[in-house]
Amino acid sequence: MILNGVEIRDSFAEAFPMVGTRLIITADTAKWAMIAAKTMTGFATSVIGCGCEAGVEREVPAEETPDGRPGVAVLIFAMDIKGLKSIVPNRIGQCVLTSPTSACYAGVEGGDSISIGKALKYFGDGWQIAKNVNGKRIWRIPVMEGEFVCDHETGSVSGVGGGNILILATSRGEALQAAEAAAEAMSKVPGNILPFPGGIVRSGSKVGSKYAGMFASTNNAYCPTLRAQGQTALPPEVASVMEIVIDGVSEKAVSDCTRAGIEAVVALGRAKGVVAIDAGNYGGNLGPFHFKLREIMK
What we know:
GO cellular component, one term: cytoplasm
Order of helices and strands: EEEHHEEHEEHEEEEEHEEEEHEEH
Enzyme class: transferase
CATH topology of the largest domain: Alpha-Beta Plaits
Shape: elongated
Domain Formylmethanofuran: tetrahydromethanopterin formyltransferase Ftr C-terminal: 146-296
Structural class: alpha+beta
Number of domains: 2
Family: Belongs to the FTR family.
Catalytic activity: N-formylmethanofuran + 5,6,7,8-tetrahydromethanopterin + H(+) = N(5)-formyl-5,6,7,8-tetrahydromethanopterin + methanofuran
CATH class of the largest domain: Alpha Beta
């Protein structure tokens, strides 16, 4: 399959089940809502080293938030519900409770419950107050600035983690330009996050290593500087590869996001140095979700 001079390789991204939740973070200004959201979702690129994967899903206008203030929706994913139940209140307590003018609300209903105020109320040291608003329990926790308002808990969803595309280009600059275009387009597809810096991964990994204790190591088949050292997946003209990893609330969300990213790269085309689009997988033996690039682009 060739689109605008770009080869869509006959490959698939292999993804895994994850458990996730959505939170709505608000503040007096959009600036401070985003600061709290980005702080809370920091150091959350991969479950391998960070314990979770998280990111900003979208900005939420004031007319759509529970308290009528500017907001940001964030998604947080973990490998199991036990991990998510531990990670979410810790991150809210350290990064949202502490952020000026912030509040935190549930962004999803149903599934296993995840504590927000149920866990954080104890910071109020007995001065906290519970209220019922429209049938939902919220907490008002006194702080030096005023008070922190949050829902009692949020719900959870069965999500998908590890969708991906690989962008093969003739130079590092062209690979980055294409990856930036893809990340911008993919960030507009609801229900997904791109958890790596700016949505882009320069250091894609494979499972395992020759060193004991390493769960992942550099994906040498896609490293241009190792082309002459052994097996390579790169044609001679490719000098740089960028990856985009996708976590989503459903299989369809990840598929739609994948297509948006490929379309953005293809729009640049071979004239902008893009040679091919590929995907990372493990032979189909580990993850139950297989996002076949050519089927997605039919």
